[in-house]
Amino acid sequence: MSTRHDRLTARAASFRNAFRGVSVLFRTQPNMRLHGAAAVAAAIAGGWLGLSRTEWLWVVAAIGAVWAAEAFNTALEFLADAVSAEYHPRIGRAKDAAAAAVLFACAAAAVIGVMVFWPHVERQFF
After folding, report:
1. C-alpha distances in angstroms, 70 versus 19, 24, 75, 104?
2. Are the CB atoms for 66 and 107 separated by under 8 Å?
3. What dihedral do alpha carbons 105, 107, 110, 111 form, nearest 10°?
4. Using CA atoms, how far apart are residues 44 and 50, in angstroms rounded to an integer?
5. pTM of the predicted model, to two decimals?
6. pLDDT given for residue 1 in this prediction
7. What are 79-123's pLDDT values in tens digits?
């Protein structure tokens, strides 16, 4: 029978693993660093332009979707590379599909960004 302490220790370990994964993503994936810079830029612009609560929800959801897609893509790549160091067409297709997921998330985030930020930019500068 597990104790409350055991459950809390297990939860803490799962968070340590997750944060280690975040570190791996930012240390090893140039695209993740690009996504991080874009997120910082969006946060700065959003603060400067005074986004509404609803607009922030869209921006945060878009950032989260891109980061999650990049994390899944990287996980699949690491796993595929561990399974076979040699080229295999099905592994290549799986990697391409995972990369497409990141592309879809980025495209959707770009559309959200334009829809959220453009009216503020237009009011501010035009």
Report:
1. 15, 12, 8, 11
2. no
3. -110
4. 10
5. 0.91
6. 67
7. 999 999 899 999 999 999 999 999 999 999 999 999 999 999 999
